[in-house]
Specification:
- This protein has about 270 residues and is mainly β.
- The chain contains 1 helix and 15 strands, in the order αβββββββββββββββ.
Length: about 270
């Protein structure tokens, strides 16, 4: 049974965006204090059951950056052209409107609140001579998504990872390895995936501009479908000592990631 399958690719698209955004901006805007984060994101493609062909979201978030740690939370408002039926808890494809006791069909444009995400990162090693930093990271998803949107499992998710960051002149490389526990909705069982990521960044004009390419993947979530993978290209512009502007484009590989994702964001020191 495939239940609320949109939650999977939505989670991956958002996590990939946030990770790239933080990796790009932390190096050039690292003063301790509170930061306001906001972004817009458009994702599209043909997913399983041809559902959620286009998803537009607006994120608002808050982050506290300490000397060796950071904690952040973000919550989206989501709009999607939903074309999904939910029959006795199982997702099927539909193009009509129909409501009955055991069959609920949604078609057209849906709007609602997404899930709340929280992230924590802590630098456990910082070696000045080798210019290597190692972080441990934790994340949690709190199920606040509107039920009619079919983008939430209604369960908590949590995970962790360890990241290595290596600097060399104006270049910076990233390696990330982690694990994600996905809450199973009623009637379905997902495999909890291991996660991995590889990235390479380049800074220009003393850090005023930066570019980063990042590849991330998960092990299989359902045996019968490909493991999710995504490649992203991001650019940052440090508009001032307290503002960074980011643009990110991503391409998904497999059934559980959007064919494309375009994002734009702001990070402002309060």
């Amino acid at each position: 049974m495939i239940h609320l399958i949109g939650e999977i690719f939505w989670k991956l698209a958002y996590a990939g965006f946030l990770l790239v955004f933080l990796l790009l901006s932390n190096e050039t805007l690292s003063q301790s204090g509170w930061y306001l984060t906001s972004s817009i994101q458009l994702s599209g493609g043909n997913y399983i059951l041809d559902s959620y062909n286009r998803v537009f979201s607006v994120y608002g978030g808050l982050r506290y950056q300490g000397e060796n740690f950071g904690i952040s939370a973000s919550l989206p408002l989501v709009t999607s052209n939903n074309n999904v039926s939910q029959t006795n808890g199982m997702m099927t494809q539909s193009g009509t409107n129909n409501d009955a006791a055991t069959n609920t069909t949604h078609s057209g444009i849906d709007f609602g609140l997404g899930d709340l995400y929280g992230y924590f990162d802590y630098k456990i090693i910082s070696d000045f001579d080798s210019e290597i930093d190692i972080y441990v990271n934790a994340q949690i998803k709190i199920p606040t998504a509107a039920k009619h949107m079919n983008i939430g499992t209604g369960k908590y998710d949590f995970g962790g990872s360890i990241s290595l960051r290596k600097s060399l002149d104006n270049f910076i490389g990233f390696v990330d390895l982690g694990y994600l526990n996905i809450g199973d909705p009623d009637g379905s069982t997902y495999k909890n995936p291991f996660t991995y990521g590889l990235g390479l960044g380049k800074f220009f004009n003393y850090g005023e501009y930066s570019l980063l390419i990042y590849y991330t993947g998960y092990t299989k979530i359902l045996n019968e479908y490909d493991a999710p993978k995504q490649i992203s290209l991001g650019a940052n512009y440090r508009a001032s000592e307290s503002i960074i502007i980011s643009l990110i484009g991503s391409a998904g590989l497999g059934n559980f990631t959007p064919d494309f994702t375009f994002s734009g964001g702001l990070r402002i020191k309060l």
